[in-house]
């Protein structure tokens, strides 16, 4: 025999394993509960005639329990699949629960509404991309930090970068920009000055000035491939390759001084003075330019 | 064991002198080699300390001998004995069969056919889109402004709540060549996502040890010349690919006069980013004689040598990257094909690196 009242008294006042009390109220964890609150009218155990809606993989089912089947727990709950359409589902509920207490039917319909809304929202969210939060174990984080520090020490970065830059300088990528080692350059200039004083310098000086301004505007980027173009331009202006290289070096040095933002050392100042003198005197340096196949690399030999 | 030793001792005592000595020697050897087999803590620690002290003395002796040999060789004018190479992790790195060989035809063919070849062959100039994750905070914007100054031709767009896939589409329409997404976690940028376009690979890096420009002592201010790129130590195929990905972010025609260098240095799978302005200078190194300095000679003599050095001034941010995953195609975590994913089981060996 089903004595709902007895069941309720026992459950509520003694112990119910589905009940959970929290600060805001008393809730029922029973999956067949319509409202989720622990109530005399909402308790699926203490009501022999009960119905709920449950969701399985996005499909809603209406579950009904009647007192006639109370002695057969296996077949206790009758399941009806509800259609996708909200209105049709409501109609179906009405049909199945026609003579049931209105309160229960109302609660079931409310539950259906809520669940359909949730289903819509879940589907919308699933389409959007959401960031998934992954955690890393603390041990790994510490390990990575340790390894990174050691790697940084092992990679002596400043030295490595300097070495790479010097290697590039040796390879000749910067040819035409730098005239290092500097003292040798000055020496060669000094020695060749004596030879150059006999030459006729006026014309070439004028040419030099014009030619250089042109070149400066055209040639911003010294690339390997562009070198060829640069040289051929020079050859048209001046017949001498040598002059060009000399021009380049001096002009480059002058440009460097303009561009340079680091504090000038005494060394650099003297360099500037030297160049001032050189501009007036127009020495000629015998520079051999070796053209390789693509004309890509120059070797300036003193 | 104690029982056994007792019987041994008994035997030794009972037996003859020779066997006694033998057994004692055996025991001594045993305890010298394995202090862990001695149960008595005091005795064990004493033996261990003795062993360590002995080792220390041996090491010092060896060092002295080496120094003496080197000195003697120098004095005699001979070549000093060859210096021993210390064993480092890089020396003892596990052999990797994917290391790029210099004459690899397949590598060059692969390079021609991969996604970066268009940019790297000057066909397209790199145009970078920088954005953030959805929730941006504190250090993120500062880092992004610095990135904007480091990478030429880069633009920053606010994230809003757009899907990354939508952003990729948008960028494709506007002819960008790469997207960089800076991801923030706990108010610190901690991940970088570099997506090549139009259908380029997606590299996910973990970002750490970020130091902004204002926090660097004696920092310099970068100019707007195109920087040179230095990529160190990208040896394996994967490393090579990542190197090319990084290369495709920067314009391929560096302005050498600008003297600006951006370095990505790979060490043990950590990619260190540095940004410097450099200058070449000559430095005189006077080689002093071993018998003290004599009167100053003129510069033309061979005693003082000149050396060209490079000096660096750091500007711009400094950070470390570690590759987490490389995915073929644009960002698609669910459907994409991952070329390389970091798994914790890869960390089991301390001598194994992938980049």
From TrEMBL, chain A:
<dbReference type="Pfam" id="PF01778">
    <property type="entry name" value="Ribosomal_L28e"/>
</dbReference>
<comment type="similarity">
    <text>Belongs to the MAK16 family.</text>
</comment>
<dbReference type="GO" id="GO:0000470">
    <property type="term" value="P:maturation of LSU-rRNA"/>
</dbReference>
<feature type="compositionally biased region" description="Basic and acidic residues">
    <location>
        <begin position="224"/>
        <end position="233"/>
    </location>
</feature>
<dbReference type="Pfam" id="PF04874">
    <property type="entry name" value="Mak16"/>
</dbReference>
<feature type="region of interest" description="Disordered">
    <location>
        <begin position="194"/>
        <end position="302"/>
    </location>
</feature>
<dbReference type="InterPro" id="IPR006958">
    <property type="entry name" value="Mak16"/>
</dbReference>
<feature type="compositionally biased region" description="Acidic residues">
    <location>
        <begin position="194"/>
        <end position="223"/>
    </location>
</feature>
<feature type="domain" description="Ribosomal eL28/Mak16">
    <location>
        <begin position="6"/>
        <end position="118"/>
    </location>
</feature>
<dbReference type="InterPro" id="IPR029004">
    <property type="entry name" value="Ribosomal_eL28/Mak16"/>
</dbReference>
<protein>
    <recommendedName>
        <fullName>Protein MAK16 homolog</fullName>
    </recommendedName>
</protein>
<feature type="compositionally biased region" description="Basic and acidic residues">
    <location>
        <begin position="265"/>
        <end position="277"/>
    </location>
</feature>
<dbReference type="GO" id="GO:0030687">
    <property type="term" value="C:preribosome, large subunit precursor"/>
</dbReference>
<dbReference type="GO" id="GO:0005730">
    <property type="term" value="C:nucleolus"/>
</dbReference>
<feature type="compositionally biased region" description="Acidic residues">
    <location>
        <begin position="234"/>
        <end position="253"/>
    </location>
</feature>
<keyword id="KW-0539">Nucleus</keyword>
<dbReference type="GO" id="GO:0000460">
    <property type="term" value="P:maturation of 5.8S rRNA"/>
</dbReference>
<feature type="compositionally biased region" description="Basic and acidic residues">
    <location>
        <begin position="285"/>
        <end position="302"/>
    </location>
</feature>
TrEMBL record, chain B:
<dbReference type="Pfam" id="PF04427">
    <property type="entry name" value="Brix"/>
</dbReference>
<dbReference type="GO" id="GO:0005730">
    <property type="term" value="C:nucleolus"/>
</dbReference>
<protein>
    <recommendedName>
        <fullName>Brix domain-containing protein</fullName>
    </recommendedName>
</protein>
<dbReference type="GO" id="GO:0042134">
    <property type="term" value="F:rRNA primary transcript binding"/>
</dbReference>
<feature type="compositionally biased region" description="Basic residues">
    <location>
        <begin position="46"/>
        <end position="64"/>
    </location>
</feature>
<feature type="domain" description="Brix">
    <location>
        <begin position="126"/>
        <end position="332"/>
    </location>
</feature>
<dbReference type="GO" id="GO:0030687">
    <property type="term" value="C:preribosome, large subunit precursor"/>
</dbReference>
<dbReference type="InterPro" id="IPR007109">
    <property type="entry name" value="Brix"/>
</dbReference>
<dbReference type="InterPro" id="IPR044281">
    <property type="entry name" value="IMP4/RPF1"/>
</dbReference>
<feature type="region of interest" description="Disordered">
    <location>
        <begin position="1"/>
        <end position="69"/>
    </location>
</feature>
<dbReference type="GO" id="GO:0000460">
    <property type="term" value="P:maturation of 5.8S rRNA"/>
</dbReference>
<dbReference type="GO" id="GO:0000470">
    <property type="term" value="P:maturation of LSU-rRNA"/>
</dbReference>
